[in-house]
C-alpha cells in the first residue's frame, strides 16, 4: 500500500444516525454518456440522537460528481458545505428540511459493478452493502430507512423496460419524446435495497395468490436469448412463496414481485425490495445447458432472495456488523426449504461438507472473524462463509435447542416485534428466548467468538449399573485478536448402538429414547446414560448438531459399523469420511516421505455392500463413495502438501476402482436409464450414482469404461451427463479428451454459462503446460475480464489445479497475483475474493509457503483498494 492506510471501523463506536430521511425522491436521467441523478431527501434530525447540533454528513463515492446542492429552495454555495473524503459535510441545518442534490455519474465506465452500471445492453444497480453512495450522496447506512419514489427517464426504444422497487405508478412521454416511468415503494427501506433496471428485455409472467387471497403478479426478465430458461425459476419462486407461508406464516406484501437476470454481477443475487437482481448463473436453467447441481443452486438462490423479503427487508440490520442477522437466518431458511423439496439428509451432508471444508478453513486462517465481527476495513470482505454458513448453523442450534414449535413462536415474535425496524443479532436471540423461556444468554457467545470449537468425547461403560458415562470437553483455539475463549453452549445430539449396529434405547434426564440432545455448556461435562443394555458405540453429533470439530477414538470396526448401520444418515456418511481420512492420511505421510504408496483399504468391504444393496438412497450411496476432497484434506492437514494429497487420493481411488471394477461397471449399467430429463430428487440421485460409478470405473482405464464415457458424452440429452462424462475424460486423460473438449466448445460456444464450465474445466486441468493453457484461455474469444463469472471460472479453476497453481517454481502463485493486481483497480470486490488461496500461506509446506508469502508482499506494495488491502495485510500480519 503506497499512501495512507485505510482505517478500520468498530462496532463499539456505533451511534444512532443524527438525521433521518423520511422520504427519498430520485430522478434518473439515463443516457449512454452521462447519467444525471437528482435526489430530494426529506430530512429531519433524529430525536433519538444525543448529538443535537451534529453536522449533516452524506456519503458519496469518487465516481460521483456533485453538480448542485440545495436546502429547501436555497442553492448552497460551495462555502456553505465541505466536500472531504467523498463526503458532503453541512454544518448548519434546520431541524427539518428538503435537501436536493444533483449528481453526474457514468455507469458505462463503472467496472466495480457497485452502484449503477451497464451489463450487456442494460443499466442495472447493485447497492448492498455501500453501493448506493456510488449513485448519489446519501446517509448510506442500513438503519436509515426511507420511503422511495423513483422516476426513470430514458429512450423508450432502447430501454422499453424501466423498473424500480415497489409498484409502477405512471408511465408517460416527456416533451423530448423520452419515456418517464415512476415507481413507488410504500415500505420504508435502507438504500442498500434500492434497485433500478433499464433495458430491452423479455419477460415471463405468472401469478401467486397469497394465504389471505391477494393476487401477486410475478415477472422474470432476461435478455431475449435467455427467456426460454426461466420456467424453472418461476416454479421455484412460487414454491418458495408457498413454503414461507406454511412454514413461517410469512406472506408477500407488494402487488408485484420481479426478478431480472444480469450477466455481470459480483455475487450470486440480490434481494432488492420487489425487484431482485440475479447473476444469470443463479437464475437460468434448461436441461441441455444446466447440470443437476445448477438446478439445485437456482432453486436455493431464488428461495434465499425471496425469503429475504421478511428476514432482511421487513426486518433489516441496524449496522453491517449485524449482517448475519439477515444472512445466517436466511441461509437457514433456504437450507430448510431445499431439504423439504429434496432429500433432507443429502442436503445436510452437502451443507456440512461445504462448511467443514471452506468455513472451517476460513475460521482457522488470517481472515477468521466472529459471526458478528467487531471491526472491519471494507464491509464487502465480510460477505463470508462465517457470516452466511456458520451464521446459519447458529440459527440451526437455536432450532435444535428450542424444538420446532418454540422456534416458530420465536420467529413469529421476532417478525412481529421488529417489523419495519433495523435491529441486531441480540434482538433475534432475545425474541427466541422470550418466546421459548429458554435462557440463551450464554448462547450469545457464538456471535462474538471466532474459531471452530474442538470437542473431545470419551466414554466408559459400567456392566454392573448398566450406565454409560460420556465425558465431553470443549475448547476454542485462539484467533486474531482473541487469545482466550469462553465455553459455548451447544446441543450435541447422541445415539448409542450395539456391536451389531442396532440402536440401543437409553435413559437420560428421565427420558427413554434412541437419540438424545445433550446441552454442553461447560469446559468439561459428564453425561450419564442409564439402562444401557450393553457396551455401546456412541454415534456423536448426529446431524452435525453443532459446528465443531468433534473427536472420539473409534476403532476401524466401530467406524465400519456406524457407516453401515447408524440410524442417523448423516453420521453414516461421516463415519465413511473418517475411515477414508485415516487411510488417506497414511498415504499422504508415505507420499511425503517419498515412499511407494501402499495400504490395505478397509473401505472396500463397506463400499461393496453399498454397491450391492439396491434399496439404499442413491444420492447417499454416491456421497459415501466420494473420497474426501483435496480441499478438505488440506483443511485438516497441519502442514499442507498439495502434491502428496493429490497422489494419495489418486492412489486410493484407483485401488478401490480396481478392486470393485465389476461392481462399478454393473452399477453404471443398472443406473444408465433412458428417461425424459427432470430435475427431481429421484432422477438426480440416480444420475449422481451413475456418474460416481463411471468416475471410479474410468480409473481402471479399461476400454469398456472409456467407451462408456465417450458414448455418454456424445449421446447425453442433458448437461449433467454430458459434463460428467467430459470431466471424467479430462481427469483420467481419456484418449479422446482433447477432441471432446473441442467439440463441447463448438457445440456450446453460444451459451455463456456453458462456456464458463468449459473454461473452468480447462483451467483446473492437471497438465504439464497448465499455466500456458490458462494464459491462452484468457486470450480466447470466450474470455472477458469484465465478466466476474468468467474471471472466477478461469482463476478459480486455476486455484484448484495442484500441478499448475501449486507448481514448485511459484509461477502459478505469481500469475494469480498478477491478475489480482490488475483487477484491484477495475473491480476491487472480485480482486479481493481471488486472494483467498494465497491467504492460506502459513499452512503450506515451507517452500510453497515462502513463494505465496512473496506474492502477497508484492501485492501489498501496490496502490490498493480497501478490499484487497484488508485481506492481504491481515494475511501477512
Ligand atoms: N444480500 C445478497 C448478497 C449480496 C451481497 C453483496 C452484493 O454486492 C456486493 C450482492 C449480493 C444475498 O445474500 O444474496
Ligand atoms: Zn442473503
What is the topology?
Blueprint: E1 9-10, E2 19-29, E3 35-45, E4 56-59, E5 65-71, E6 74-75, E7 82-84, E8 87-90, E9 96-105, E10 115-119, E11 122-126, E12 146-154, E13 161-164, E14 167-173, E15 179-189, E16 196-199, E17 202-209, E18 215-222, H1 231-248, E19 256-262, E20 269-270, E21 275-279, H2 292-307, E22 316-317, H3 323-341, H4 344-363, E23 375-376, H5 385-418, E24 422-423, H6 425-436, H7 445-448, E25 454-462, E26 467-475, E27 490-497, E28 503-504, E29 506-508, E30 511-513, E31 515-520, E32 524-529, E33 537-539, E34 549-551, H8 556-565, H9 569-592, H10 603-612, H11 618-625, H12 630-636, H13 642-659, H14 661-671, H15 681-698, H16 703-715, H17 719-731, H18 737-748, H19 752-764, H20 770-779, H21 788-799, H22 802-805, H23 811-826, H24 828-834, H25 836-839, H26 846-860, H27 866-876
Parallel strand pairs: 2-12, 18-19, 19-21, 22-24, 25-34
Antiparallel strand pairs: 1-23, 2-3, 3-9, 4-8, 5-6, 5-9, 7-8, 10-11, 11-16, 12-15, 13-16, 14-15, 17-18, 20-21, 25-26, 26-32, 27-28, 27-31, 27-33, 29-30
Zinc ion (ZN) is lined by residues 304, 308, 327, 330.
The first-to-last residue Cα distance is: 14 Å
* Overall CATH architecture of the largest domain: Alpha Horseshoe
| Alpha carbon gyration radius | 28 Å
Average per-residue pLDDT, rounded, comes to 98
The major sheet is characterized as: 8 strands, mixed
